[in-house]
């Protein structure tokens, strides 16, 4: 398998932060290479929308960041989304905003969208404690609005902190646009200050890149080139380089492109996904078919993403004779396939882009049919176009 993933998207996490901060900085920054992911295209459109009802579809960051943004910019809005978005909790963020002085009401079920932002009379507190183990997106949302608050904001994160690199990414983006912010241990301090407009170029998306590591892992022979990725990235999902080394893929930067080639793989993988939850599906599927036993922790947050990703993985892995066994609430064992793979299989995707993209590379070994392949538009709209350019046969039925 040889070629370049020409349509690899820019990071949606970085793009969505840049768009929120740019809006708070007056909207005049030059932002280059924004992601074409639906989550970012939604953010681009909705952040300046005059509509009262804001439909974020299934975009988690867009929902959480806009809830904070519309609150501090005093825009009365109703935020809603898909049925699944109405099942993804938002209470911790709403509680924090209410403590700050924002009037927000739930319109259907307490703790979940849709919700209505009514008013913000003025900052009531400077100090907020918030759990760190549910979603870092609530924390990033509060951090980005913090410089605009008259008293600034101190956040104390309680319990285990998940997705920490995404919080560090928020710090880095805030700094790029002129706002100081410190994040030490479990404490984040943001003084009141003004953002400055700045030029910014978004790098490629490491989570999207992870699927090309999967193709390389399953190919007989591979030389895959990935554009605009840096190894010391703001994105925690660049950890895929380390993980996939164990699974038989070597990655080196050559002439500005990341080159993936084959190397020997090991029989076991111990990995904690606490700080890179979006890689779990990619890695589980590759372990399953390469005979690698996975000893995993840090999968808890997968249950509240686009679908319950633990249940979805368990259902679909069983179709190829593998399993993801829950040993206790914190430990999972990936039991790989020991028998021959079926010659073909149909995989359900649960309206989750990452289910589709994690299982697609199995096409290197068997005939794969995927339910609603268009779900990839959430983060990687040209995924199928990229696949076809590598001569992997893909047909839309
Ligand atoms: O801040 C972000 O851009 C994200 C944070 C992570 O979510 P959690 O913090 O909910 O784990 C990640 O799964 C999501 O895809 C993007
Ligand atoms: C979890 C994800 O996105 P979000 O939470 O922003 O919907 C994801 O892209 O895998």
Automatic annotation (TrEMBL):
Pathway: Metabolic intermediate biosynthesis; chorismate biosynthesis; chorismate from D-erythrose 4-phosphate and phosphoenolpyruvate: step 6/7. Pfam families: EPSP_synthase (PF00275). It catalyses: 3-phosphoshikimate + phosphoenolpyruvate = 5-O-(1-carboxyvinyl)-3-phosphoshikimate + phosphate. It is an enzyme of class 2 (transferase). The keyword Amino-acid biosynthesis applies. The keyword Cell membrane does not apply. InterPro entries: Enolpyruvate_Tfrase_dom (IPR001986), Enolpyruvate_Tfrase_sf (IPR036968), EPSP_synthase (IPR006264), EPSP_synthase_CS (IPR023193), RNA3'P_cycl/enolpyr_Trfase_a/b (IPR013792). Its EC number is 2.5.1.19. Residues 8-47, 49-386 form the Enolpyruvate transferase domain. Keywords: Amino-acid biosynthesis, Aromatic amino acid biosynthesis, Transferase. Belongs to the EPSP synthase family. This is 3-phosphoshikimate 1-carboxyvinyltransferase. The lineage of its organism: Bacteria, Pseudomonadati, Bacteroidota, Cytophagia, Cytophagales.
């Amino acid at each position: 398998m040889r070629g370049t993933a020409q349509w690899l998207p820019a990071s949606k996490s970085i793009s969505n932060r840049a768009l929120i901060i740019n809006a708070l900085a007056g909207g005049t920054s030059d932002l280059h290479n924004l992601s074409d992911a639906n989550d970012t295209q939604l953010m681009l459109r909705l952040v300046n929308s005059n509509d009262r009802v804001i439909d974020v579809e299934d975009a988690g960051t867009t929902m959480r960041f806009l809830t904070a943004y519309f609150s501090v910019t005093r825009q009365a809005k109703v935020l809603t989304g898909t049925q699944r978005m109405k099942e993804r909790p938002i209470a911790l963020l709403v509680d924090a905003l209410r403590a700050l002085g924002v009037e927000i009401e739930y319109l259907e079920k307490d703790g979940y969208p849709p919700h209505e932002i009514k008013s913000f009379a003025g900052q009531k507190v400077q100090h907020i404690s918030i759990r760190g183990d549910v979603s870092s997106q609530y924390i990033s949302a509060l951090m980005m609005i913090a410089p605009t608050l008259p008293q600034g904001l101190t956040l104390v994160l309680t319990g285990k902190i998940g997705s920490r690199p995404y919080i560090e990414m928020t710090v880095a983006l805030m700094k790029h646009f002129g706002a100081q912010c410190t994040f030490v241990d479990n404490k984040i301090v943001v003084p009141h200050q003004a953002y400055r407009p700045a030029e910014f170029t978004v790098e490629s998306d490491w989570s999207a890149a992870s699927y090309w590591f999967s193709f390389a892992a399953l190919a007989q022979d591979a030389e895959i080139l990935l554009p605009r990725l840096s190894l010391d990235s703001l994105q925690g999902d660049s950890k895929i380089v380390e993980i996939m080394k164990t699974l038989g893929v070597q990655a080196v930067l050559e002439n500005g492109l990341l080159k993936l080639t084959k190397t020997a793989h090991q029989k076991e993988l111990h990995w904690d996904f606490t700080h890179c939850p979006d890689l779990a599906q990619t890695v589980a599927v590759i372990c399953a078919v390469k005979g690698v036993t996975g000893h995993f922790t840090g999968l808890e947050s997968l249950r509240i993403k686009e679908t319950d990703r633990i249940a979805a993985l368990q259902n679909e892995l069983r179709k190829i004779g593998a399993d993801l066994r829950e040993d206790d609430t914190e430990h999972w064992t990936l039991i790989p396939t020991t028998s021959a793979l079926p010659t073909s299989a149909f995989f359900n995707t649960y309206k989750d882009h990452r289910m589709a993209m994690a299982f697609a590379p199995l096409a290197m070994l068997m005939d794969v049919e995927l339910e609603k392949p268009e779900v990839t538009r959430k983060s990687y709209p040209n995924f199928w176009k990229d696949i076809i350019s590598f001569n992997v046969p893909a047909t839309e039925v």
